[in-house]
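step=predict obj=Ribulose-phosphate 3-epimerase n=158
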Amino acid sequence: MVSNPEKWVKDFAKAGASLFCFHIEASQDPGKLIDEIRSHGMKVGVAVKPKTSIDVIFPLGHKIDMCLVMTVEPGFGGQKFMEDCVPKVKALRERFPELDIEVDGGLCLETIDQASKAGANVIVAGTSIFKAENPKEVISTFRNKVNTEQAKYSKSVE
């Protein structure tokens, strides 16, 4: 999370970034920032901190490619997954079936089911992978659980 994300768009585009994700809480005018990101040829991601209502995303959902639902407070690894953030994922998936929904924070073998069943299709995991005895197995399990839930969801939308 950075302050004044607007000032970084040109630098990220110039460096070759394909997606620019910013925290909704850090922008004074998210709609204008989204337009600026698009004007530089990048996809748009918007992150939401745990205490921020997901309702702030609803008016922007049709303009973004990805929403990152933080399931811990941003800043450091190893925090416990905040289950009360899961309904945000579900609400996004119901309103925006094609949106990439990313979940970041506290994801492990004990919490992946909650995130994937709610509709998350992009998973960020640090501690649970890097401290695992078999990181490849953890990654494979995460991937399989997300893909299984996404397949179920895709069938129900059709």
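step=describe
Strands lie at 19-23, 43-48, 66-70, 100-104, 122-124.
step=end
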